[in-house]
Amino acid sequence: MAPYEVIPARPAPLRPGGARDWLRRELFGSWSGGLTTLVLLAALFWLLPPMADWVLWQAVWPADAEACQAARGAGACWGVITEKHRLILFGRYPLDAQWRPLLASALLLGLLVASGLRRCWNRWLLLAWVAVWLAFFALMGGGMAGLAEVPTERWGGLPLTLLLTTLSILLACPLAVLLALGRRSRMPALRVLCASYIELVRGVPLISVLFMASFLFPLFLPPGATPDVLLRVLLGIALFAAAYLAETVRAGLQSVPRGQLEAASSIGLGWWQTQRLVVLPQALGAVVPGLMNSFISIFKDSSLITIVSLYELTGSLGLALSGDPVWRPYMIEGYLFITAIYFVVCAAMSRYSLWVEQQQARSRAR
Question: Which of 43, 158, 193, 347 has its Cβ near the most Cβ atoms within 10 Å?
């Protein structure tokens, strides 16, 4: 019998990488993809020079109305942002106290960023949320610690947008989970009730919900018992968002294999323990993109509250420019400024969703 012959190890295959391979894979992978890439590049080179000329080279940056009028049609007037940025960002909040919404927004944004970091996921995070919200309402509302009281009708701009988005998500998520579980319940009455609520709310536009919460709901209350308009709008957005989130959560619940339920039952877990420890972690993890898409929609849909005389970012922009004939012609520059804020926030939320998906993929691969 011939002895075994040791075969020398072969070098590992080269992993494709580098800019050339990326271009070939992403932009020129097929003839249709390559043609589309060339057409888009041609359009970009045709549009980019005049856009850069209008946005940068011929633009007026100081708050000089005469210079903006002279450059009209040739360059952007970013001086309108320099002149009106405080009114755009903080709405009708008193001018001498605008440090308060600035500090409140900074605290809330810092908390949101910290909540997305894995190293901050501990028991102190919940206390931080309570402390920041108490500080937020104390700063915005005043009436304590020597701060002048400011009614909610004068809140606006970025702080109001962050407030409505964050609290609406916090209120809608638990309700959405309960609605999704109820719609899959074996009890007919509960299942029909949850399904009816979801279909009814999803069948009407948000603007009608805001209108009913602001103008019709107080008619059913006794005189003098009308809640604050901000509270009514907040509850309206949260109830509306919960119906859409419930369907996303229900899709995640349906993706969990039945064997997971049987395994949980075999080790003695009750129904609530099974949902909390086994089903919901898998279900919510499977629908992260859908949940984040709903969160982004909530952030953008907050602009509809202008119909009830609450001026968030877009409403504050109209408030800042519509009554000033000097700066009114530069509404486009103002909307571009608002668009940049929305884009940065939405892009950050999308990238965080992608990071969460990558972390889940790594955990499943282990």
Answer: 158
